[in-house]
Design brief:
It is globular and about 50 Å long. It has one domain: Jelly Rolls, CATH 2.60.120.620. The chain is of the alpha+beta class and about 290 residues long. Helix 1 crosses helix 5. Helices cover about 15% and strands about 35% of the residues. The strands form four sheets. Strands 3, 4, 5, 6, 7, 8, 12 and 15 form an eight-stranded antiparallel beta sheet that branches. A three-stranded antiparallel beta sheet has the order 11-10-13, with no helix packed on it. The structure holds fe (ii) ion. The site of fe (ii) ion has 4 residues, from loops.
Length: about 290
């Protein structure tokens, strides 16, 4: 086991005069760098950065979560993945209001899609409801929630497909061979949290939680005119393990959902007269 030291690092939130504090865990000694998982989806050796992909996988394995900068995420993806980032990110402008909010909030917009992902490829499943038990989501769980489906252009988008492939390589590689499913049930959520004066924009209205899956990726797509939105990671006794803010597009959090809780503080507008929102992509992998 690696010894850990906690080093505070100041990050500056875009356009805001406040600084978020990120707790980084320094690791003493050399980190074992095993060979990249590779193989599936035809990632030839060399297209995946050994250092960066292993850094994410090693943090996930050792800490139960990984904070990945946009730079690290880029290194994890093939070069073509971001060739049409503009259209991918712009699709967050066309999400439906989440009408299932138990707090009657209308600050969350979303689209949803389900997929089967395996070494043989990615297959979109028929549109279906999103379901979480109340054990995992006491606020909005316990019912089937039907959200607008992902647009076909996004479900087939090279960026999304590349992210699925990178997640598959990372998560499959961290799953013991005996427990690897023939196929992963993958759920994909596009979220926009809007911040308005008088109504908090809560990225995780259920508070500190687990999603009830095996693995989670939360990737920032955009932050527009907002402050706060600080992610924290806690162990199963809910002791703080790490705290960071996703600031740049592609900044990401990888989470081992069986080992840690996650939550995000509400976002607030910097300039209350202008639109303010936080766009994220959430991808979950569950054994099926
Ligand atoms: Fe979550």
């Amino acid at each position: 086991m690696c010894a850990r030291s906690r080093i505070p690092c100041d990050l500056h939130i875009l356009g805001a005069s406040i600084a978020a504090r990120r707790w980084c865990y320094g690791k003493e000694g050399a980190r074992k760098r095993s060979a990249a998982a590779g193989g599936a989806f035809g990632y030839p050796a060399g297209r995946v950065s050994i250092t960066d992909s292993n850094s994410i996988a090693a943090d996930l394995r050792d800490e139960g979560f990984a904070w990945a900068s946009a730079q690290k995420l880029r290194a994890l993806l093939p070069p073509a993945a971001l060739r049409d980032w503009k259209s991918f990110a712009a699709s967050w402008n066309d999400l439906g209001v989440d009408a299932y909010m138990a707090d009657n909030g209308r600050y969350r917009r979303r689209r949803f899609g389900a997929f089967a992902v395996s070494a043989h490829g990615i297959v979109r499943k028929p549109h279906q409801p999103h379901y979480q038990s109340r054990d995992y989501n006491p606020m909005n769980g316990g019912i089937e929630r039907w959200f607008q489906p992902l647009l076909d252009s996004i479900a087939d988008h090279v960026t999304l497909r590349s992210i699925f492939e990178a997640c598959f390589s990372t998560f499959q590689g961290l799953t013991p061979v005996a427990s690897r499913p023939a196929s992963w049930h993958v759920e994909c959520h596009q979220f926009r949290i809007e911040a308005r004066v008088g109504e908090q924009g809560k990225p995780t209205p259920e508070g500190l939680h687990r999603d009830g899956v095996d693995w989670v990726l939360v990737m920032l797509v955009a932050r527009e005119n907002i402050a706060e939105g600080v992610t924290s990671i806690h162990d199963t006794a809910q002791r703080l393990l790490g705290r960071f803010t996703l600031i740049e597009p592609l900044d990401s959090a990888f989470v081992d959902d069986s080992r840690v809780y996650h939550g995000v503080t509400p976002v607030v507008p910097i300039n209350p007269t202008l639109p303010a929102f936080r766009d994220v992509l959430v991808v979950t992998f569950r054994r099926e």
